[in-house]
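Here is one chain, start to finish.
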Amino acid sequence: MTTQDSGNAPKPPAKDPWDLPDVSGLSVGVLGGTGPQGRGLAYRLARAGQQVTLGSRDAARAGQAAQELGHGVEGADNAECARRSDIVIVAVPWDGHAATLTALREELAGKLVIDCVNPLGFDKKGAYALKPEEGSAAEQAAALLPDSRVTAAFHHLSAVLLQDESIEEIDTDVLVLGEARADTDIVQALASRIPGMRGIFAGRLRNAHQVESLVANLISVNRRYKAHAGLRATDV
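Its structure:
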């Protein structure tokens, strides 16, 4: 085929951004799974039919929390949780973020990691964003886990709503960031398994800081209006 012929070949159609993979068969681990956010995410994903393992520094504590959640959730220490899972959600407190990931670097190698940690400080004026040296919690995770595929998502979800068994749907969008489309598509698909949610691609990891920081604003919204506000991306 000549160069001219190659230039005249029709371009393949653009990939439909809503053509997402089937992730129903992937197992999900939640580090920090005994905290409010981790428990809430584990509950919603398990309720949607995902196989979920709660991770904790204390395996017995993880097992007790898993039993309370039901829906087939299992408990394990953090290392075992990481080993047995295809996708690992990092929902640990910010002050333990670096140490937890450093200790689990080997177990998380080759895994798709979703960081949902929000670096925040609190004073008399309320919540405010912290900026890690790497730029964001997600970028810190990527630096500490060079052999993992790090993404960022699930930052703006109310732990209260996630854990409320009487609520059937969570009316919100989940902003997803990452470097590889195949990975962000998986995370979008996982978020969309939860009724009421959509996973929305929101850029590369270098944009994670403002996504993490927005939680400080949502805390102010929720305090003023006594709500559990989330986010919706309009016209998408």
